[in-house]
Amino acid sequence: MVTTKTHAALLASPGLGHLIPTVELSKRLTTHHGFDVTIFVVTTATDSSETTKSPILQQISNLNGIDIIVTPPVDVSDKLDPKNPSLGLQIVLTMLESLPFIRSQILSMKFPPSVLIVDLFGTMALPMARDLNMSTYVFFATNAWFSAVTMYLPFITDEAFSRHANNHQPLLIPGCEPVRFEDTLETFVSPWGPIHEGYVNAARSILSVDGILMNTWKDLEPGATKAVNDHDILGQFIKRPVYPVGPLVRTVEPVEKKEGESENEDLILGWLDRQPAESVIYLSFGSGGTMSEVQMRELAYGLELSQQRFIWVVKQPVQGDACAAFFDTMKDGNGFTVEDYLPEGFVSRTKNVGNCVPLWAPQAEILKHPATGGFVTHCGWNSVLESILSGVPMVAWPLYAEQKMNATMLSEELGVAVRATAAEGGVVCREQIAELIRRVMVEKEGIAMRVKVKEYKISGEKALSVFGSSHESLCQMAKDCELHDLSQSSHEAK
Ligand code: UDP
Fold first, then answer.
1. CA-to-CA distance for 279 and 165, rounded, in angstroms?
2. In 3D, which of 62, 75, 68, 65 has the Cα closest to residue 35?
3. CA 436 / ligand 1 centre spacing (Å)
4. What SUPFAM superfamilies has UniProt attached to this entry (predicted)?
5. Which stretches of the chain score pLDDT less than 70?
6. What angle do CA 299, 300, 302 make, to 5 degrees?
């Protein structure tokens, strides 16, 4: 690597949903701001082979200026409660155990990085970075609203949490929309345990970094992006520069494929080529989202009732744990086939209008395809941004983490989605599913949503273009990193 360039290390916490935005930020830093980047891909014992094989890593392995270091897989299962293995805790413990390896790798580099950028789960690496004289940044791979909630956590009183958890009153965040109890995070439902405490501590350490990046843009969230930097509003608590640098979404790099490797992908995209414009609804619940068998069957019947063409990414159903597949996204359980869990005859009845794809589909390409007209999504932020940047309106069907907040933003503020609501027993019924899909695909309401989402697509592209608000934000952050490099080298010269 060339010494005159700023060299940043980015830590991607386990899970493809965390890796993808880290990769996109890295690409932006190298191609637009002249950085060299090393990405540390932190892996758990269950996902390492899947992550390293993932097309996302293969696609960037040839890019100039980006080095990838996959950390040795870590098994933290003995430290988790087997009855309730919290996803967040699993990620945090894996990050902690991987730190000594990351440190030793940085120390052994000929031109070590001068900047460390971590995601929400990587804040335990910040003291190490300071110890190594690196400047420190946190990248919220999410929207400004949720970033604001996280950064404000240390200032929320026990009484306010108690009113939220016990009396279901909204959590008030200065300058931002309040968080309604129906949309709240699991940790805020009983905010007195060690997981909540760990989250608040992480928030505290975020408030000590040199800068904070968010995967959003000013025109998408004018209120929250203003509040976080405004010293009369939320900025008085944060006191750090907060840079909206999005929308950073997966771009698809051409890769040389081995024979047979992309057969499935070609089949899906080839099928889409033969469908009329904006006539296909795409259904996917992220890299890890799963549902119960009952819900899957209801969804299948709902799809049939909607009478729309579809592509559905089907995962093995799991009872009661919506993020069960988070680490083993592409593992096929016990050799499962989609027919095992769908209503009898569903696949053959729908074979002319639909495609059930097991486990994983080329989502970025599907959403960009002119035949795709709607997206049933779990509202993971990467999926949301990909949909907006493809001009595709959504059926918002949140499952876990901050997805309910995202669904509210999409359906109530931005007007680019309709929202699914589970009945008692937690199941969204087939009639509602059919109605929601038809509202997006064929009703007048869908036409209006399509117009709106295309306006946001244009505004997102503008934000990233030269002189656009997000481009300028990242320029500013890059300048600050250069200044840090200069002050370090003059310090060393003395
Ligand atoms: N993804 C994909 N194919 C799939 C499922 C997911 O390419 O079948 C990609 C999707 O395009 C997105 C990411 O995986 O970039 C999922 O991230 P998101 O934030 O939406 O959800 P998470 O998986 O973190 O819950």
1. 43
2. 65
3. 22
4. UDP-Glycosyltransferase/glycogen phosphorylase
5. 1-3, 47-56, 61-62, 83, 85, 252-262, 319-336
6. 60
pLDDT value of position 320: 61
Nearest 5°: CA angle at 27, between 483 and 103? 65
Q: How many residues would you count in the chain?
A: 494
- pLDDT at residue 2, as a whole number: 45
Residues contacting 456, CB < 8 A, separation 6+ = 219, 220, 388, 414, 416
Atom number, ligand 1, closest to the C-alpha of residue 17: 24
**Residue with token string 């027993």:** 425
pLDDT of residue 331: 53
The pLDDT value recorded for residue 193 is 86
Catalytic option among 36, 47, 119, 210: 119
Strands 354-358 and 211-214: unpaired
Q: Which of 51, 52, 97, 100 is nearest to 78 (CA)?
A: 97
Distance CA 260, CA 263 (A): 5
Do the beta carbons of residue 359 and residue 325 sit within 8 Å? no
Write down the pLDDT at residue 253: 61
Q: Ligand 1 centroid to 269 CA: how many Å?
A: 18
Confidence at residue 261, expressed as pLDDT on a 0 to 100 scale: 56
- Distance between CA atoms of 487 and 494, rounded to whole angstroms? 11
Closest by CA to 70, choosing from 38, 28, 34, is 38
User: What gap in Å lies between CA 382 and CA 329, rounded to an integer?
Assistant: 15
Q: Which of 13, 22, 287 most suits a substitution to test ligand 1, by most atoms within 8 Å of the C-beta? A: 287
Phi, psi of 96 (to 5 degrees): -60, -45
**Cβ atoms 288, 327 nearer than 8 A:** yes
Supply the DSSP string of 64-108, one letter for each residue: TTEEEEEPPPB--GGGS-TTS--HHHHHHHHHHHHHHHHHHHHHT
Cα of 289 from ligand 1 centre, angstroms: 9
Q: Which of 18, 164, 196, 378 is catalytic?
A: 18
Q: Please report which residue ranges of 313-380 form alpha helices under DSSP H.
A: 346-349, 363-368
DSSP single-letter state for residue 339: G
Decide if 119 is catalytic: yes
204-246 pLDDT tens trace: 999 999 999 999 999 999 999 999 999 999 999 999 999 999 9
> What are the tokens at 486?
């200069």
Instruction: For ligand 1, pick from 19, 316, 363 the residue to mutate: most ligand atoms within 8 Å of CB.
Output: 363
Q: Which pTM was predicted?
A: 0.93
| Residue 18 annotated to the active site | yes
* Residue 44 β-bridge partners: 74
**Cα 389 to Cα 274, 370, 383, 403, 494, distances in angstroms:** 23, 13, 10, 18, 49
